[in-house]
C-alpha cells in the first residue's frame, strides 16, 4: 500500500472507523452510534477492495480485554495504533483533532465524515432550550474528503452538514445486523421471539423521549383512539422512558389525564428498559411515531423478532404495519387490525419481515457493491 504524500492509495484498503469510549468495559448494546460503527465495519469487510477494517478509539480510554466484544472479529485500536496504517479513516463515533487531521493529510490518507444523527435538531434544541452540547469547544472539521450520511437524516440535516463542513454530502445505504440482538435474546424464553397470546393486548410505546424526533405523545394518542373504540381488546398501555416526565412535567401529566386509557387505569409510565427483555416479557404490540427519522434500529429489532410494529417510518413502509405521517386515526386502525389478525399468521409475518430486512444486512450484495463503489470513488479523487 502506497502511503507517500500526493499519491493515491493503491490496492486493497485498510480502513479505520472511529468510536469514542467512555470507560474500559463499555458495552455496545446501549449506544446506537457504536453499533453503527460495528455494522459499517461488517459491511466494509465484505467489500472486495478492502483488506482490513478496525475500530479506532479517539478517547484516552485504554483498549483492553475488558471490552465486552470480540476483538478478533472487531479489532479495536487507539489513535497511535491506527494513524500510520489506515488508508481511509471514517469519522463516525469519535472526532479527531486538527493535528490528527493534518497527520492523515500528510500521509495522503482519506478522511470521511459518516453522519448518522439528526444533528440539526440536536443543535437547534441546544440553542433554544439551553442544552449544553459543545459550549466554547466547537471544532468543525472542514478537511473531509467526503460526507456520507444515512438516508433518514438527509431531509432535515443535509444542509447543516454541507454548510458547516463546506462539502457536498451523499446518502449511503443504511446498515443493520441482528448480531447484538441475537446475543441479548439468546437466554430469553423462545429466544425473545413474539408468540401468539390469548386475551386483551399489552401495548408498548418505547420512544426515547429525549428530543422532538422520537416522542411518545402520538403513539399514546393512537392507543387512546383504539381504546375508545375497543376498550375490551386492550389490557394495558406501557410507556417506557417516560417515568421522569410522568412525575415531573405538569404539562405532560395534565395532558395524560385527558385520556380515557389513563383515567381508567390502563396506562403505566415506566423508566428505561432493555428492549429484547421488555418485548419478550411484557409486549404484544409496539406502537411508534417518528418525526424526521424514518428508519432506525429499533424498528428492525422489533420486526426481526416478529413483534407487530405500528409505525410511520416512510423509508420502510413495507415493514410492520405502516400509517402515514401524523395520522393517528390511521394508526389506530392499523392497531386494531393487528389485534384482530396478526396472531393468525405470526410465524409467516416474522419470516416475511426478516426477508425484507435482509436489504439492510452487512452481506447484502447490493449494499456491499455500493460501499465498494464509494470507496473506489473516494480514493480516485485527489485528496482535499
From TrEMBL:
InterPro entries: DUF2827
Top-level taxon of origin: Bacteria
Name this polypeptide is given: DUF2827 domain-containing protein
Annotated organism of origin: Variovorax robiniae
